[in-house]
């Protein structure tokens, strides 16, 4: 079985600090959620993952965007670059990097849930027949030909981040909940992607798979589990 | 109750020609022994690109070898992926007929549509279409096996008049099955008069519910072929040893490794949202929420064929009581159990367990061909 091969030291150098493992849950109404999947090269399998996680075959990068119109942190848009993986036998999305246009959201998401946020430009725009994501030189993406889908048909994989916690460097299981009232599937097109701008190893999107755009309520609950990133989940999982 | 063995050809890393050779030839030896011991079926799956989990990309070749090396056991082509990008329906009909001839009429013909993005994406298949193409395949294959000549105007393929050759030995045609992973597929099987080839681990209660629904629905089926196959099988693990402790240690190692390999597949629904795949299609035992602790293995489901002979007899009796007519066993995964122990487990099962379950399953019912 394959495991992550990224340098833990290198990942740790970029990992945010979480002063506690007890963030206040957050709820955001009317949030737009874009999820776009791209296969990566086999050569990149595991390259962006710590040894405690396992890559999928084919390796998959998922761009996940939240556009939040308002709430406790004000309006913000967050764009995550995630690598699909397994923790033990559970499907997970490891957040390799993310960018948000809000300092307040960046601070809250980094310190509360371990998202490796940097502040930068990110815009999600919805037109009648397409959706576009502009994260500056780092990423440009278009979703074409929207086709209605039942919200229950979309799977949002549980998130894993890497952070310096009071227990040490840990993989943090974040379980956002999506109560969407409308979802459409779109055909994704990667207009540009600059791996160096993300400063994260193992991101190599090549073959577009599919994308969805939805709107509804996003909840980010309390944390329940963390695990040691250097060993498999069966050995390293701890309840919060 | 009937019993089968079920080959995934799961292969440990590092991959090499020698490793693949070992897995394939160990499987052939297991098939020969199963034939001698009185097992009813040997099934071989079709999968593509599934590293470690299944290197079984050409089951028809394996089954031809099995047919040539055995005398009595039935060969289960289970299951052929019924999407045209992977298998053109004419070629499917031809290969199946040849396999029926080579095996002297021992073919069981399973149908499926694939569950992983790894496979569907690799062949450029639109996941939205697989249920439709599967439905079209199962309706035309019996006609290709019977009609002289055959012509067809359909949605996923069309053909002018041709005689699809050869024709199968079994008349009206080999028994047909559907692999059942997602809840509800058993009703698709029943509505078409097809056997229910379970490939997902379920609880007794869930299987009992599905089996009842299947039998209720198949009574009023509109068969796609010229016969109704009303058998219901489940997939299980088998490791039988006189010492319960040894059985548990070794058998649960098999269950755990298989579950781990299975959990690491990239299921269609995970990569490609579609209403055509309502579940992850997970064959791993126990299921469980994605939000569960990553430190927990999937639970060991009830009804597993691991233990000493007495325990396994009890387990099988329970499956029989809820209407299951056959059980197919995974007997190894990634060579985690040495071949000699796999063979010993089969022998012990055959001598101590099988005699408790004499075959009471009636032959397949022939019906008038559908209009």
Write the layout of secondary structure elements.
The complex is a heterodimer of chains A (about 240) and B (about 375).
Chain A: H1 8-14, E1 26-40, E2 54-55, E3 60-68, E4 76-87, E5 90-100, H2 103-113, E6 117-119, E7 123-126, E8 130-134, E9 139-149, E10 159-165, E11 168-174, E12 177-193, H3 195-198, E13 205-220, E14 225-227, H4 233-236, E15 237-239
Parallel strand pairs in A: 5-6, 5-10
Antiparallel strand pairs in A: 1-3, 1-13, 2-4, 3-4, 4-5, 7-8, 8-9, 9-12, 10-11, 11-14, 12-13, 14-15
Chain B: E1 2-7, H1 17-37, E2 41-44, H2 59-69, E3 74-81, H3 89-102, E4 107-112, H4 117-122, H5 130-146, E5 150-153, E6 158-162, E7 176-180, H6 185-191, E8 195-198, H7 204-218, E9 227-228, E10 232-240, H8 244-263, H9 268-271, E11 305-307, H10 309-321, E12 326-330, H11 339-352, E13 365-366
Parallel strand pairs in B: 1-2, 1-12, 2-3, 3-4, 4-7, 7-8, 8-10, 10-11, 10-12
Antiparallel strand pairs in B: 5-6, 9-13
> Strands across the major sheet of chain B, in which order?
1-2-3-4-7-8-10-12
Rg on CA atoms of chain A, Å: 16 Å
- Helix fraction of chain A, binned, reads 10-25%
Give the helix tally of chain A: 4
- Model regions low in confidence, pLDDT < 50 over at least 5 residues of chain B: 282-288, 365-371
Largest binding interface between chains: A-B, 42 and 33 residues
- CATH level-two architecture of chain A: Beta Barrel
Succession of helices and strands of chain A: HEEEEEHEEEEEEEHEEHE
CATH class of chain A: Mainly Beta
Mean pLDDT of chain A: 96
Overall tally of domains of chain A = 1
Q: What fraction, in percent, of the residue positions of chain B are helical?
A: 25-40%
User: How many strand elements of chain A?
Assistant: 15
| Strand residue content of chain B | 15-25%
**SSE class of chain B:** alpha/beta
CATH fold naming of chain A: Acetoacetate decarboxylase-like
Give the CA-based shape of chain A: globular
């Amino acid at each position: 079985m394959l495991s992550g091969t990224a340098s833990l030291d290198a990942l740790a150098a970029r990992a945010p600090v979480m002063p506690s493992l007890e963030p206040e849950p957050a709820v955001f109404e009317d949030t737009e959620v874009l999820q776009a999947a791209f296969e990566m090269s086999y050569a990149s399998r595991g390259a962006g993952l710590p040894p405690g996680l396992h890559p999928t075959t084919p390796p998959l990068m998922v761009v996940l965007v939240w556009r939040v119109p308002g709430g406790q942190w004000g309006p913000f848009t967050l764009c995550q670059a995630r690598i699909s993986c397994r923790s033990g036998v559970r499907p997970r999305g490891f957040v390799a990097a993310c960018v948000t246009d809000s300092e307040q959201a960046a601070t809250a998401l980094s310190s509360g849930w371990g998202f490796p946020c940097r502040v930068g430009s990110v815009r999600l725009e919805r037109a009648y027949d397409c959706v576009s994501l502009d994260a500056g030189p780092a990423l440009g993406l278009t979703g074409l030909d929207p086709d209605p889908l039942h919200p229950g048909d979309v799977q949002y994989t549980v998130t894993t981040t890497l952070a310096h916690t009071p227990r040490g460097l840990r993989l943090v299981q974040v379980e956002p909940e999506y109560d969407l009232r409308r979802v459409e599937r779109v055909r994704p097109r990667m207009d540009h992607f600059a791996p160096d701008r993300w400063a994260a190893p193992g991101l190599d999107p090549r073959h577009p798979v599919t994308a969805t755009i939805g709107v509804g309520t996003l909840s980010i609950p309390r944390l329940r589990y963390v695990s040691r990133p250097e060993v498999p989940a069966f050995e390293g999982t701890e309840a919060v | 109750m009937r019993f089968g063995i079920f080959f995934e050809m799961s292969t440990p890393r590092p991959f090499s020609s020698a490793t693949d050779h070992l897995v394939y030839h160990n499987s052939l030896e297991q098939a020969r022994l199963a034939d001698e011991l009185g097992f009813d079926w040997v099934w071989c799956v079709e999968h593509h690109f599934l590293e470690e989990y299944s290197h079984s990309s050409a089951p028809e070749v394996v089954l031809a070898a099995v047919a040539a090396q055995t005398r009595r056991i039935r060969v289960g082509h289970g299951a052929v992926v019924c999407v045209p990008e992977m298998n053109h329906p004419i070629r499917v009909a031809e290969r199946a007929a040849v396999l029926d001839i080579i095996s002297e009429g021992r073919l069981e013909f399973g149908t499926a549509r694939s569950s992983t993005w790894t496979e569907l994406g690799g062949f450029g298949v639109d996941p939205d279409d697989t249920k439709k193409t599967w439905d079209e395949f199962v309706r035309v294959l019996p006609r290709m096996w019977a009609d002289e000549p055959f012509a067809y105007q359909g949605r996923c393929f069309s053909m002018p008049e041709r005689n699809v050759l050869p024709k199968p030995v079994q008349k009206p045609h080999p028994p047909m099955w559907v692999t059942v992973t997602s809840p509800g597929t058993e009703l698709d099987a029943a509505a078409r008069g097809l056997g229910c080839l379970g490939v997902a681990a379920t609880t007794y209660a869930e299987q009992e519910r599905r089996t009842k629904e299947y039998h209720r629905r198949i009574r009023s089926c509109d068969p796609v072929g010229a016969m109704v196959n009303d058998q219901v099988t489940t997939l299980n693990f088998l490791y039988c040893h006189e010492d319960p402790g040894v059985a548990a240690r070794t058998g649960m190692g098999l269950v755990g490794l298989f579950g781990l390999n299975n959990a690491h597949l990239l299921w269609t629904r995970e990569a490609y949202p579609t209403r055509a795949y309502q579940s992850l299609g997970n064959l791993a035992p126990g299921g469980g929420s994605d939000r569960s602790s990553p430190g927990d293995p999937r639970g060991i489901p009830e009804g597993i064929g691991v233990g000493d002979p007495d325990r396994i007899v009890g387990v099988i009796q329970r499956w029989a009581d809820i209407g299951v007519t056959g059980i197919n066993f995974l007997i190894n995964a990634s060579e985690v159990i040495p071949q000699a122990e796999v063979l010993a487990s089969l022998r012990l099962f055959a001598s101590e367990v099988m005699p408790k379950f004499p075959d009471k399953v009636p032959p397949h019912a022939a019906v008038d061909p559908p209009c």
